[in-house]
Amino acid sequence: MILISRKVDYAILALIHLMKSKEGFSARQVAAQYNLSRPFLANILKELCHHGFIESHRGIHGGYKLVRDPAQVTMDEIISALDGPFQLMSCAREDGEGACGLVDVCPVKGPLRVVHERMAAVLVGTTLEDLGRSESPLVTLTMENEQNGHASDLPG
Asked: Which segment, 65-69, 84-88, 151-155, is predicted with the most confidence on average?
């Protein structure tokens, strides 16, 4: 099961690259640096432009630039813009559409809903700036818990 699509993964990579690069970049430069498909990356960058995360400039010194404050761009926004709202399982949708036939008798629907809500809260509370820090609080927390072996210390 994949929670974050390749499209969202590449979008986050490009956004973090933009966050750290004041001059901006072209799709060709980033595709070459990370060995990504340039056409696929170019389509992702177009979508990010359409949703107002970045802007593009044509010409010899053209390329893409971040227009939103990285501290204000959440993982939830990125995922929702590119793939639609986060959904851990089909019965997590607010409209109930796509729910399985067991929704009325399912013994794990409630506990999984709690997991869904916790994950959704992490996505809403995690910004592009958080992800772009070399010492991200999420990475630090994970490393600390791996060292001391207390998984109960993880958030949620």
From this structure: 65-69
Q: How many CB atoms sit inside 10 A of residue 31's CB? A: 20
Q: Give the integer Cα–Cα distance in Å for 52 and 68.
A: 8
Amino acid at site 70:
P
Degrees to nearest 5, angle at CA 120 with 118 and 126: 100
Assess contact for 63 and 57: CB atoms under 8 A.
yes
Report H helices in 21-51.
27-34, 38-50
- Write out the E strands in the chain: 54-57, 63-66
